[in-house]
Amino acid sequence: MRKWIGCWIALLLCLGGFTASGAENSAAAACVINGETGEVIFAENADAQLPMASTTKIMTALLLCEAHDFDRQITVTEEMLKVEGSSMGLLPGDRVTYRDLLYGMMLASGNDAANAAAISLAGSVSAFADRMNEKAAALGLTRTHFVTPSGLDADGHVTTAKELAMLASAALSNEEFAKAAAAESAVLCYGNPPYRRTLKNHNRLLSEEGVIGVKTGFTKKAGRCLVSAARRDGKLVIAVTLHDPNDWEDHRRLLEEGFAGITTTEYSPAMATYMLPVIGGGEDALEVRIEPYRVNTVQTEAISTRIDLPKFLYAPVQKGEEIGRISYFLGEKTLATVPIVAGAGVAQLPQKASIWKQLKNNIRLILRGVLYEGT
Q1: What CATH number matches the domain at 20-261, 3.60.110.10, 3.90.1170.50, 3.40.710.10, 3.90.1150.10?
Q2: Which among 21, 86, 109, 120 is annotated as catalytic?
Q3: CATH code for the part of the protein at 267-368
Q4: One of 57, 135, 215, 235 is an active-site residue; which one?
């Protein structure tokens, strides 16, 4: 009897489409994506608009990084400090660099750092919020809207778990942002006069295998919010939970499920070998082979390519010389663009060859030439 009951329960779970993560997850919304391709691996209420607390600082820090002015030093004003909550300890009159503000936001979750960056970059908090929303639109975040640079609660300050994961993926492609997001601690120098001090990262997951960030957050309205990212064996997984009282444990599980959901494969286009005519060479043509591309995806069947090769080549051709390019796509998203190189060299025809022989050879090769693009 117990055996039959167990079988019926198992069958009902399968028919209902329940997953372990769906049953155990305690967040109001959650999403896990392949950080390289943007593919969704797990989603639960992932398109619901919710407050995001200090995970907002991912956008603020990204815009600061894109200013490319890390050594710029500013003087902190009283207006910059008109903000409550977590702080990196800034006082009016302090001298602080943009790099200090970046680490103050990402490690100490300093609302003072976010406000100082916003006012310095845009002149006011509201003007900086406009920049945040312009960047969100450029990234395709249609259900995200920013009001504050710090993430303090405000009417209309919302995002979704899926779009926050997309934002984290874009931010991690910025080298300076990625360094700050992964730092467990940082020694900075600011104040009046500046002096050395150490900030510790609030992100507990950074001590675990492969974790490279990203950002914690909390307000009474938003609850506990967390964006995490981990890289293992060339795979990048990004997990987001919003309003999650058990975020640390949820993220440990979600990251593992994310890695399990990504397949590593070597992908080759339908046609991977071409014969390119060579004009003025000791060989009539050069065989070009496109090597398999290693890709981490959830759905390998969705990959397509565009191959760009010339109609013909002029001798001499050096071995290893770039002669074309191949682009890999997942839907409309470009995964990578890789050079196509000559696998062998082709020497130029010797000077003693007659002009007539070269002309006939060149005409014949041009007529045989084909422009290859797209598979």
Answers
A1: 3.40.710.10
A2: 109
A3: 2.60.410.10
A4: 57
